[in-house]
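ugh ok fine here u go
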Amino acid sequence: MRPIQKSNKLADVCYDIRGPVLEKSRQMEEEGHKITKLNIGNLAVFGFDPPDEIVRDMMLNLQNAAGYTDSKGMFAPRKAVMHYTQGKHIAGVTIDDIYLGNGASELIVMSMNALLNSGDEVLVPAPDYPLWTAAVSLSGGNPVHYVCDEQNEWYPDIEDMRRKITPQTKAIVVINPNNPTGALYPVSVLLQIVELARQHQLIIFADEIYDKVLYDEAEHVSIASLADDVLFITMNGLSKNYRSCGYRSGWMVVSGEKRHAKDYIEGLNMLASMRLCANAPGQFAIQTALGGYQSIQDLVGPGGRLLKQRDLAHKLLTDIPGVTCVKPKAALYMFPRLDPEIYPIADDQQFAYELLAEAKVLIVQGTGFNWIAPDHFRVVFLPNSDDLTEAMGRIARFLEGYRKRHGRG
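structure:
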């Protein structure tokens, strides 16, 4: 029999958050090992429940959720998103500019499919949330990674971004707050990105899924609020701010310079129609979530569980010799650096395998986020304090052994 091959379009597509190391973890679990999973921001499994009113509203409306909705989504939740954008000072957004999706992930892929031709380039941060790189590649484009500077709070390197713009560049992706670094960009940085987009007539794709998961009284500014002469596509949803990952309820907002984007918007409409609609139960959660009590503040504010776990994870990691980490201002992740002089890692995926096998802790290697060197990894700080302390202790003991094996201890 002739082997059946996967599509060539998948040749440059990867998603290591659920990649080969996770498969090894599943195999170990089947063999009876207990694995501590620090690989994915799946809040529910760590006891972070969605607000009760969201759950109640979805249950009450299930009898009304059996039919297809409008391809862009139901009116009431889209209107709630419109009001949300007004609160973020994004001007000129109408109901027709809002698309509901099965999570922001579906909309990210859709937005790239509607835009890119073979050979088109999109500037994507390094490190990035790898779905963005994968979506560009799957859509026939070339992801070009601009560097975020660890020495400068992980802010985008504007000059590196400028150097990488070519006649083939169509757009810039801005992930703010950032996954995996937890960086939160100041207005001064965002304005420089807007100016680059303005000069080169580029679209800005803004991933703002963590815009409420903010620590130390930090404030988030939507980049789309800073100009009306650039086209912005802003992604957001319920999965993180409202601990509703599995409800797959997200949205995409088109704003700014829309007059010259009619053909692109027509493409978005076509793709929205082809998938018929986003799941209706998830749509029913949006209006209640956005208009209700913002319980995320209880988790990230003083005394909040997420804040305490962030501080604990940061201290435990940076107490390990040769490990440094920019303290995240937002989101759910740490992206620590392993000093190459102390940890001579040639293959960070192999490093993740070894950590899993020895310490029974699952992390994601830094190159899985398109980082440029095998010297970082990402962990979530979602387990409760006791479990987090135990997991970090196992990582510390593994790294102690690693140093000794390589003569650096």
